[in-house]
Amino acid sequence: MRHSPDHITVAHLRQHKGLRSMLVAAMLLAMPGAATAADVERGAALAEQWCNACHSVGREPPRQFDAGPMFADLAKQDEAYLETAIRRPHDFMPEFPRLDDTDLADLVAYIRTVE
Ligand code: HEC
């Protein structure tokens, strides 16, 4: 057996990268109607209902206060960051809804699709 560990490592990394984007693509395809995968459309509806007062959740400006960052600017953040940020009570959110894990996952999935 020939030894070329560098080669193996690079090939491995490439493969992982490919796998990851395939997984992401598969998840996106599976989203509408899927019970387990986060539901982007549901997330969009939740964002419209609960977040749009203060955040631009898509292309429209916020309805009431121009207070929070645009979701398009948050789209690059990873899930963990967004979940923590959403769970963290913000000063301006007195009537913040009780978001369960599904709501949160759907919201985060939606935010990450906003361009
Ligand atoms: C009443 C106004 C208001 C509403 C409603 C609101 N937000 Fe916010 N949000 C803010 C403000 C102001 C900030 C920035 C200050 C802060 O982080 O506390 C913020 C910050 C955030 C951040 C953190 C950004 C960062 O990078 O730190 C996230 C994520 C977020 N909001 C998501 C949401 C989601 C999801 C909803 C709907 C479920 C929502 N917000 C509803 C006002 C609001």
3D structure, described in words:
By secondary structure, this protein is mostly helical. It has two domains: 1-30; 35-111, Cytochrome c-like domain (Cytochrome Bc1 Complex, Chain D, domain 2), CATH 1.10.760.10. Helices cover 54% and strands 0% of the residues. The chain contains five helices and no strands. The chain has helices at 5-30, 40-51, 71-74, 79-87, 101-111. The chain starts with a helix and ends with a helix. Heme C (HEC) binds at residues 50-51, 53-55, 65, 67-69, 74, 82, 85-86, 90-93, 107.
Strand and helix map with partners:
Layout: H1 5-30, H2 40-51, H3 71-74, H4 79-87, H5 101-111
The structure holds heme C.
Radius of gyration: 18 Å
CATH architecture assignment of the largest domain:
Orthogonal Bundle
**Shape call:** globular
Bound molecules: heme C
What portion of the residues fall into strands of 2 or more residues? under 5%
SSE pattern = HHHHH
What would the average pLDDT be, to the nearest integer? 77
Any descriptors?
115 residues, mainly alpha, Cytochrome Bc1 Complex, Chain D, domain 2, 2 domains, 5 helices, 54% helix, globular, binds heme C
